[in-house]
Task: structure prediction
Amino acid sequence: MKRVKTVRLLVEAGKATPGPPVGPALGQLKLNVSQVVKEINEKTKEYEGLRVPVIIEVDTSTKTYSLKIGVPPASALLKMELSASGGKRDLSIEQIVKVAKKKMQGMRTNNLKTTTKSILGTCLSMGILVEGRSPKEITKRIDEGEYDDILH
Result:
């Protein structure tokens, strides 16, 4: 009989350790904590420096598990892009689309235009310009089809 226990954690990408919060949560389920930590670090390394949601589903009868790696919040991904841009408060449309593609995993749409406009909303609240313009103006231009070539 399959009995599944779900463990939800928020870990620093690429730097999970057998210590808290991972070790105690998994140790009580009799898993090889070092193996799980190694797999978490491998699967989260692209988000290094950010905190990433991790869901571990454990079959307690067989001691097998599966990992689901979430995507950091849009604001964290945008901050990562800002730091890659030398700290300017201005990003390119390509950087916004890059963030949108990452966030699509966790959103209820597979429409890149919709997701990009959602990321632009986050830019607006964070005071980030896009190509020197207000995110509202970029959203309007997306609606007019100006960026269709990179939103497909």
Notes: The chain has six helices and five strands. The chain has a mean pLDDT of 90. Residues 5 and 115 are 32 Å apart (CA to CA).
